[in-house]
Design brief:
The protein is of the alpha/beta class. The chain has a single domain, classed as Transcription Regulator spoIIAA, CATH 3.30.750.24. About 40% of the residues lie in helices and about 35% in strands. The chain is built from three helices and four strands, in the order ββαβαβα. It has a four-stranded mixed sheet. Helix 2 crosses helix 3 (about 75-85). The longest helix has 13 residues, at about 20-35. The termini are far apart.
Length: about 90
């Protein structure tokens, strides 16, 4: 189960807690669309406990669309990098 909290202070930050499953990505996309065009968005991943493979692809797409990934654990950054085709520091 995923809990989503929204905070706005110059930018909109969605704080995520729990598991991010494939079906959660549809809800997050919907929430992003509700924000005004040009709004700076961020996802705070500090309290995420588990991420499905489809959700990693979604996070890679978010990052490519200039949505900041805050408090993203190193293992998730590495996995996102592999999904988006970037080499990790260890592979360079």
């Amino acid at each position: 189960m995923l809990k989503i909290q929204r905070k706005a202070n110059g930018k909109v930050v969605f704080t995520l807690s729990g598991r991010i499953e494939a079906e959660d990505t549809h809800e997050l996309s919907r929430l992003f669309q509700l924000e005004g065009a040009g709004t700076q968005l961020a996802l705070d991943l500090k309290d995420v406990t588990l991420v499905a493979r489809d959700a990693i692809k979604f996070l890679a797409d978010c990052q490519a669309d200039s949505i900041q990934l805050e408090n993203c654990p190193a293992y998730l950054r590495e996995w996102i990098g592999r999904e988006s085709g970037h080499k990790s520091r260890q592979e360079q």
